[in-house]
Every structure is written in C-alpha cells, then in structure tokens.
Amino acid sequence: MRTTFLSILLLFLISCSRGFEPVDESNVFRYNEAANISSLDPAFARDQATIWATHQLFTGLVQLNDRLEVLPCIAYAWEIAEEGMQYRFFLRQDVRFHDDPCFPEGEGRRVTASDFVFSFNRIKDPATASAGAWVFNYTAAEQPFLAPNDSTLVIRMAKPFPPFPGLLSMPYCSVIPREALDHYGADFREHPVGTGPFEFGYWKEGVKLVLTRNAAYFEREGGKQLPFLDAVSITFLADKQASFLQFVQGKLDFISGIDPSYKDELLTRDGELNPKYSDRFRMISQPYLNTEYLGILVDTSSEKVRKSPLHSNLVRAAINYAFDRSKMILYLRNNIGTPGIYGMIPPGMPGFDTSHVYFDYQPERARQLLQQAGYSAIYEMPAITLVSTPDYLDICKYIQHQVAEIGITLEIEVSPPAAVREMKALARLPFFRASWIADYPDAENYLALFYSPNFSPRGPNYTHYSNAEFDRLFEEAMTIRDESARLTAYRQMEHIMMKDAPVVVLYYDQVLRFVWNNVHGLGGNPMNLLTLKRVYKDPNWKSPNRRI
Q1: Which CATH architecture has domain 59-180?
Q2: Which H, E and C letters describe 468-482, residue by residue?
Q3: 288-509 CATH fold
Q4: Is the pTM of this model over 0.70?
C-alpha cells in the first residue's frame, strides 16, 4: 500500500517523541476536528474541540465515568467536613508530569498538593482570564486552597455546594506544573505539560495535532497500563462532508455528530445506521446533556413583556401544547433526539423523570387555553416574533406552521449567533431559541437557569423568571448532601417552573458516534467527553472492500 507523506511524518514524529520506539500507524487513533483549536491550555477549554484535546493531555483530582459518577483520579479518596464547608483530598504518590524541557534534565517530577494550589489559584486569578474561574466562585474568599502536606489538599468553601466534586472533573481544574508556566509563559498554549494518558507531540495549527502515548501514565486497566494506543492524530478539515468521505474511505477512525450534508446518506429515516455501512462501522448512540428550547422573557418590569401576549402563562402553555415534537424529531432530525415533554432536565442527567409529562401535543387544549387568555377569535392575537439563528430555521418554521393552526401568528427573525447571544444576555429578546449543555453532572446546572439571583447578564437566567417558592427550594437544595433527597427537591422545583412555562422545551439531544469496527473501548457518555485512554484497535481485523 502506498504510504502518504502525512503517514511518514506521523511515524517520524511518534518515533522521535521522548524515547518512544517507532510504531505502526495501525495503532494510531485518527479523527477530524472541524472547529479549530486555539489553545491547549486547560484554563481556556470552554468549547468541545479544546475539551477533547486537553482531556487527553491533562488530569485532575477526580474524573467521570460513562454513567457520570464522580470517581477518583489523582485523588484516590476525599472527605467532606464541616457540613459541606471543607473538602479534603488525598493524592496518589505515583503521578508524574510529562517529561519536558521545563524540568531539570527534562524529566517530569511527581505531582504534589502544592501543584493543585498553584493550578486552582491560577484559574481563579482574574489576570488569567479563564472562562472556568466561575468554578471556584463557591470557594472561600481567603485561602481557599491549602496543602498541609504533599499528599493532602484542602479546599475551603464560602458556602455548601453539593455538586462541587463534579465541577472538579472539568478540564479547567486540571493540574499543571509551575515550571511549565515559568518556562513557556504565554506559549504554554502550544507547549502543554500535564499528567494525562497522552502527551504533546506535534501541532501545526489548523492542519494537524499529534499526541503520543505517555509511557509513565499512572492508571491501569485489567492489569495493563493505560493508554493502549500509541498516538492520537487530529486533523482540522473544516468541510464536514469532506471529513465524512475521509471516514468512509478509512482515513479516519471516528466521526461525531451528524451534519445535514450527509445525514440522509448515513442514517435511515428512523435514525438507524444505513445498512450498507454496517460491515465497516457502527453507530454509538445515547442521550446528550443538551436541552434545546425556546425561552420567553417573563420579567414584568419590562414594558415590552407587559404588552406581549406571552405575558400570559396561558398563552405560553398553549404554545407548548400546539406542536407535535415527535413528528418534528422524526422529519427534521431523522429521529435523533427525544421529544422535550418532560421538563428542562434531560435524559442521562440524575434527576431526569419520565413519570410526569408536562406538555405533549394537544391542539384542542391549546385553543382552550387561548380562549381562557381572552383570545376567542382565530388570528385575533397580535403577532409574536421568535428570534433564532440560521441553523434552527427549519425547526422554527415547523413550529410557525403548527401554532398557526390554533390562531397564533408567529414571525421568525433570523440573526447571527453572536447577536442572539448578546441580546439574550441583555434581556432584549422576548422570545428566542436557545440551548443549554451541562457543564457538570448535576441537575442544579439546569435549574440555575430559573433562580432569580441569576438574572442575566449576571447569570444564566435569560428568561428573568422569578418565583419565591422556586428560589426557596433552590437554596434549600444546596444544603442537602443526600443525593436522593436533593433530587426530590429538584423535581419539586422543576414542577413549579414548568407550570409557569417560561420555556418551550423542544427536544433533548443525542450523542451520535460512528466508529470503524476495528476500534474498541470507545464508548460514550451524556457529557460527550472523548475518552481515548481505553481505546484499542484490532490488528487482525480485515476491512471489507471500500465503497463510496
């Protein structure tokens, strides 16, 4: 088989990387990232592309498994003391930073508790300008992080926050060595030094990123040291259809998500993998912690809100009942996703509850609600404007058509994503399309969207929803350490909020992954994290004849 220049380059880079022996490209995991990566510094890992890359290079105190349970990582155990006001983490003694010129003689040293104090203070420091600084808003103002010895880290809280351990699994909370920051300064973004299963090999921005196996990684699986792969190769081809063709041709091992350019080629109408591809690759599907919704500004201090028909919760409920979410998912998304009839908390998140359907398709009930709101004659209601970004125009038009059948005139205004984000944050949009992707595996992440102290632009309450009983339960839930009891409070809060209907939940998204049949151990999770340390490729698998 003819070897390409990039293959030769990749093999050369791997074999020259910090003491590794030359390896066969068949043990390299290859994927394309359509969105470019601007930094490999975990302090700036706010988008999926950067999170996926830094997740291979760095580790922290804790980690999530595929069920979103918080498990040990560098910390092998922890204790919660003083009624949730203090966490004490006990660190492994066998974790080392990657070998790098920033260390004497280029050899990585052992991680200590002081490294976490340095790393966390750096994220919290406004001068760093990390998007993850908010993670430590819950910690004490004075001396939040202490290292009484090399293997013990103490975190002091400003107030109890039960989801806090889950927050520590985020890339922002990765440990980094002071030596690397001193040595590279601002260039640390392109010279990352961490403790992850892979270490930095090569990066030509916008073209290729190569990560190589960390031979000194501390985790094991089934008695074998992780990771199993020799390298990870990431390309940056912006054209998603072109990257799909590369995947079909076997030049990539994996693609994630579905793009309209190849949706109907890869999937059947009911969302299954096209049978013609089953001999080459498989589809991995599971819930994704992403709720797509329409937000309604309900702040009565706004004159615009008071004059809008959406001021009435009867009208808001009528819109919720007026369209068929199941058909929307089937015809516009090839059945990828779950109709949003159960509230804001999505499947896959602890607290998701299917026992109560809030809004299903009931057009007759919607008409009755409009009559109760005072709109008895069809098309008597003033037109309502819905603001959306271009990529959701098909869904908005579908809703426009369906609500017209109950007498609501919906006008759609399409704006660029940046403009929508700004106007939404400034509470200038009475009716807007939005989505919320979980940052951490606790339902508080979604309910915080409706806590009145979180009014935007200070927080994520873009609807300016306010309910005293909801707020009381929210604050009470933050004092409940027992997860079962806290989930009960979360369900009560969601019931209160959905009755007031400040949102129209559209659907809960799904993680879709496509991987060649010789790749094993990939799995998936509702956070859509890409974890490659357990992945391996079957060297004996024979590829069928490739058809395009």
Answers
A1: Alpha-Beta Complex (3.90)
A2: HHHHHHHHHHCCCCC
A3: Dipeptide-binding Protein; domain 3 (3.10.105)
A4: yes
